[in-house]
Design a protein that fits this description.
Elements (H helix, E strand, L loop, with lengths): L1 H8 L50 E3 L10 E4 L7 E7 L7 H12 L3 E5 L10 H12 L2 H16 L4 E10 L1 H12 L5 E5 L7 H4 L6 E6 L7 H14 L3 E6 L14 H22 L2
Parallel strand pairs: 3-4, 3-5, 5-6, 6-7, 7-8
Antiparallel strand pairs: 1-2, 2-4
Length: 285
């Protein structure tokens, strides 16, 4: 079974630090709700959230997974009538924290209706042991994970301000989940992976229906550069277009947490961001 084969390949890897939760009122797909002003990054500029300047949240909490009331995502919507392309973003191993919500706001400022999914039913890990327990529990029920993201896709496509084109992206734990969703989830148009668990079986990857984006780190061990090379070779063998890059001198988690080492991380993070913007434009735009 494809899903079982994919689950067996997922690797447990460490991610960025936990942060506090934010909150706002729930809404449904048709409700007006708050909006994020258009503010695309200029050339040479990183989105504010990943450099520690995300600021006050500008979106709203939403329940998008029918029958799972404890699952509360975060929705950020651009100003204007649209229709806009849409993104599902998947959190790191510690859960849906404010850094991820702030990234959702930044992506809305770029013109994407963005739903930050919640795969932990509202729970947040506060240390590595708690984070890993949540990862293992969640990966042990991949059918629910895929159903969660299928529901997120349906929620976005039901909005009158969404064009119908939806992509998924994630970091670390979320990067591997985004890949899994690209293989086993409902049809969507983009998959962006930031240092997530990978697959090196061309027969599995052949089920991907669109180009794949990937950003990885030379100093990482999960995935390692060798694993990225095997992933790229498998994508090529399966005939799947891809834009993958391994950045030198950085390690795991560098992109979402540029502010932890700005002197080293800024340049590769900027290149990865500009690649990501171009990728999303050609797959969703």
């Amino acid at each position: 079974m494809r899903r079982q084969a994919l689950v067996l390949t997922l690797l447990a890897v460490a991610c960025g630090p936990a942060s506090d939760q934010g909150s706002s009122d729930a809404s449904n797909a048709a409700a007006p709700g708050p909006r994020v002003a258009s503010a695309p990054t200029a050339p040479g500029q990183l989105p504010p959230a990943i450099v520690g300047q995300g600021g006050e949240l500008r979106g709203t909490d939403v329940r998008y997974f029918p029958g799972h009331d404890a699952t509360v995502g975060y929705l950020a919507v651009p100003e204007g009538e649209g229709p806009f392309p849409a993104l599902i973003i998947v959190h790191e191993w510690n859960g849906l924290v404010d850094r991820v919500r702030q990234v959702a706001d930044d992506l809305a400022a770029e013109g994407y209706v963005t739903l930050a999914a919640d795969l932990y039913s509202g729970r947040i890990g506060t240390n590595p042991d708690e984070n890993m327990a949540l990862v293992q529990e969640t990966r042990g029920d991949m059918e629910t994970v895929i159903a969660n993201l299928d529901a997120a896709t349906a929620y976005l496509k039901a909005r009158p301000d969404v064009s119908g084109r939806v992509g998924a992206m994630g970091w670390c734990f979320g990067g591997g989940i985004a890949l899994s969703f690209g293989l086993d989830g409902v049809e969507h148009e983009a998959t962006a992976i930031f240092y997530g668990a990978l697959v090196d079986d061309p027969a599995v990857l052949a089920h991907m229906s669109h180009e794949v984006y990937g950003t990885f780190a030379r100093l990482d061990t999960g995935p390692s550069p060798d694993q990225v090379t095997a992933f790229e070779a498998a994508l090529r063998a399966a005939g799947i277009p891809n834009d993958l890059h391994v950045y030198d001198d950085v390690g795991h988690g560098f992109w979402l947490h540029v502010d932890q080492d700005p002197d080293v991380r800024t340049a590769p993070a900027l290149d990865a961001w500009e690649r990501l913007k171009a990728y999303l434009d050609r797959t969703l735009g």
